[in-house]
């Protein structure tokens, strides 16, 4: 068996003007508690360092830029890397990434994987960007990911690190079966996914009461149909006047939730996971080599 203890590290709301130093302190506290419970890998949410700013139409470029990281680690995020090294705890960290190429600014919704020595060992940029590009007055809040981020240009890579094959995805990616399938075809045994999900879905408010169900449905189906461990981590609670779901959890390759947080604030849930349990599915019902029929899946890849 290949066992490790992992943690989902849910964050409660982050205020629009909350300094990075405060958020990073909250995250170090969660990492420290995870370590106390024996965890060696912690999964933080999507855009974990700031409020979920795509809910606001921000016209001032300097203000918009203030939500992005231009270096990683930077001065304000260095304590996370120091804590990782000191405690021997790796982590997944979602953040807004700003890079400057010549005169051009490029923006991505990004996550990195940091190992137990505090080194960055993986990076992923969000592929499925939900929402819209322009300000839409009818909405109670905006969802401007298509305005504030470019489509991720790294595909769905996996990383051999921390004793297994690791994959990452970000929020809306978890609703798309292709995300898990591409990562799993590349051998992912553990797929980490941070999210910010409003309870209210303005285009179909009749689905509001289903948000927690759809979250777990996606995470559990993705785990089971690919025989992979999945960790989903929320930014939760009432943030900037918008209610975000919680439900951060650890899902076994069988699709069962084996650990889950209880509330909507800063909280961790931990589980001992055995990466070898992926074989229960991948050597049986989801043995890709024996049973997949890619010759019949053509439309999936058609534009
Ligand atoms: N952050 C993110 O991707 N959130 C979406 C909200 C619903 S689509 C507007 C999600 O899939 O949870």
TrEMBL record:
Top-level lineage group: Bacteria
InterPro entries attached to this UniProt entry: Aliph_Amidase/BUP (IPR050345), C-N_Hydrolase (IPR003010), C-N_Hydrolase_sf (IPR036526)
Amino-acid biosynthesis: is it a keyword of this entry? Answer: no
What are the record keywords, sorted?
Hydrolase
Ranges for domain CN hydrolase come to 4-275
| A matching Pfam family | CN_hydrolase
Q: Which GO terms describe its molecular function?
A: hydrolase activity, acting on carbon-nitrogen (but not peptide) bonds, in linear amides
Alphabetical list of SUPFAM superfamilies matching this protein: Carbon-nitrogen hydrolase
The answer to whether keyword Hydrolase applies is yes
PANTHER family xrefs: NITRILASE C965.09-RELATED
What protein name does the entry list?
N-carbamoyl-D-amino-acid hydrolase
- Organism annotation: Pseudodonghicola xiamenensis
